[in-house]
Each structure stands twice: as structure tokens, then as C-alpha cells.
Specification:
Keywords: S-adenosyl-L-methionine, Transferase. This protein is an alpha/beta fold. The chain is about 45% helix and about 20% strand. The protein has a domain of about 170 residues: 3-Layer(aba) Sandwich (Rossmann fold), CATH 3.40.50.150. Helix 2 packs across helix 3 and helix 5 crosses helix 8. Bound molecules: ligand GEK.
Length: about 250
């Protein structure tokens, strides 16, 4: 990804008051490093977006990337598909993310039709789209807002369209969940995060990132009208689903 990427040390010093996690300039600067070291399977999920688009998006179809951050999904698609294959709209609430995503996409893939807009995915005026990506974004919305967003995405999808939904998840069984969370912390330790960083980030994300179970996700997708959904990827407590609109 971008060469202007710094190592994530946001939670490496004791903070008097642990800051609530937000997507500000400080996070943007180290975002590629942070997400790679803290989201198991992030790279594998991005790597499958091209093949999924090739299979499910008509030639020249439109792709929404909601909560696009620095446009990593757009970069992955443009790296795998020719310019005429798709049109991309990234949307993010954070002005700092949008600015950097625009710069990166136009610098790396000037031939591809890719735009990035600042916006709140809860209130967007959605255009018809053939593929919608929610890559680790729904989890940051308040739980009471999630049903309505998924229902609106179902409406925006063209027949034959797909929604790719990647999320941090919670296991329904408490013991299973504890095991997954502990192994996830092992994953972070193995990726160089200290005990202090792990515990401070955990506190900062409390009430900001509230995970659902896979069962809750699938029930929500069905409720919104999706004919079929399945989990196509899972690594510890991180999973990606694909939902089909027939
Ligand atoms: C990736 N998809 O690299 N509207 C728009 N954006 C929002 C909203 C909202 N209501 N709430 C949060 N965001 C990316 C990774 S990161 C995941 C997604 C993470 C944005 C927020 O500003 C941030 O950029 C993104 O959702 C979540 O493939 O940091 O773990």
C-alpha cells in the first residue's frame, strides 16, 4: 500500500484517560499497518474481491465500498481488474481518510473510474449498484442503526447483485467466544503488539465496536430480503459473508 505508512503505536504509552477510538489523522497515518496487524485475514479477504467481482459483477458494473478508509478494496480491485470492468465509489465518514484515499487511488490507478466521497453510510442517497462492500464497517455503527442500513443496501443492489460483509464477530457460546478472543490477543502479540497496547485498544473500542454473532448477521440479511447468504471466510473472530440478491 502507500509508502507514507507508519507503524501503529497509538496505544503504546499509558494514557491518563484512554481515548475513545476515532478515525482521525493519527489513525490515518498508521492505518495500513494497524489493520494488517490487527485484523486476521484482512489481506486474504481483499485478495478475493477481484475474483468475486469477476464472478458476480457484470462488466462495467458499479461497486460501492462503504467505510472505504484509505481505499484498500478499490486498490485490490483495480490491481486485479481492467479499467473497463467496474466503476468504484468509496464512501467514508472521516475527511482525513477520504483525502488520502482520493490521492492514493488517483496516483496508483489513474485509468480506473474510481471516486471517493465523504458521507455517512446511514444517510446516503444510494445509486443502483451491482456489488456492495462493507469491509469491517458495519461493526462501527450503533447496533440499532444496522438493520436499516442493510435494508437500504438490499434496495440499492441490482438483481443478481452481491453484498460482501466482513466483520469482527462474537460467538454465541460464551466459552467459545472467550477462547476466540484469547486467541485473537495471541494473534496480536504475535504481530508485535504489547500487553499494554492490546488492553488499551480493547478499552478504547468498548462501546465503539460492538460485534454481532454470525447468526445475527444472517438473520438481518434474510430480514432485509437477501435470498441467500453464506460465510465464505473466517479467521478466529473475524469473518466475511456474501449475500445474494436474486
Ligand atoms: C478497508 N473498509 O480497509 N459512514 C461512513 N463511514 C464510516 C461510518 C459511517 N457511518 N462509521 C465508520 N466509518 C476498510 C476498513 S475501517 C475498519 C474499514 C477498522 C468508517 C471509518 O471512518 C473507518 O474509515 C471505517 O469505517 C472502518 O477495507 O478500522 O477496523
Amino acid at each position: 500500500m502507500s509508502d507514507a505508512s507508519y507503524r501503529d503505536a497509538i496505544f503504546s504509552t499509558p494514557l491518563d484517560r484512554v481515548a475513545r477510538f476515532s478515525f482521525d489523522e493519527r489513525v490515518v497515518a498508521c492505518f495500513p499497518d494497524m489493520i494488517r496487524r490487527s485484523v486476521p485475514g484482512y489481506g486474504q479477504i481483499l485478495a478475493m474481491l477481484g475474483p468475486l467481482a469477476r464472478r458476480h459483477l457484470r462488466h462495467g458494473g458499479h461497486v460501492y465500498d462503504l467505510g472505504c478508509s484509505l481505499g484498500a478494496a478499490g486498490l485490490a480491485l483495480a490491481g486485479q481488474l481492467p479499467p473497463a470492468a467496474f466503476r468504484y465509489t468509496g464512501v467514508d465518514l472521516s475527511p482525513a481518510m477520504v483525502e488520502r484515499a482520493k490521492e492514493t487511488l488517483s496516483a496508483e490507478h489513474p485509468e480506473h473510474a474510481m471516486t471517493v466521497e465523504e458521507g455517512d453510510i446511514r444517510h446516503l442517497d444510494y445509486r443502483p449498484s451491482g456489488m456492495i462492500l462493507l469491509n469491517f464497517t458495519l461493526q462501527f455503527l450503533a447496533p440499532e442503526d444496522r438493520d436499516a442500513v442493510i435494508a437500504r443496501l438490499f434496495e440499492a443492489l441490482e438483481p443478481g447483485g452481491v453484498l460482501v460483509l466482513s466483520e469482527k464477530i462474537k460467538a454465541a457460546d460464551e466459552q467459545d467466544n472467550a477462547w476466540l478472543v484469547e486467541r485473537y490477543h495471541d494473534f496480536k502479540r504475535a504481530n508485535g503488539y504489547s500487553e499494554l497496547e492490546i488492553s488499551q485498544k480493547r478499552t478504547a473500542l468498548e462501546n465503539v465496536l460492538v460485534p454481532d454473532t454470525l447468526e445475527a448477521h444472517r438473520a438481518r440479511l434474510a430480514q432485509a430480503g437477501f435470498d441467500r447468504s453464506l460465510v465464505w471466510f473466517q479467521y478466529l473472530n473475524f469473518a466475511s459473508l456474501i449475500a445474494f440478491k436474486e
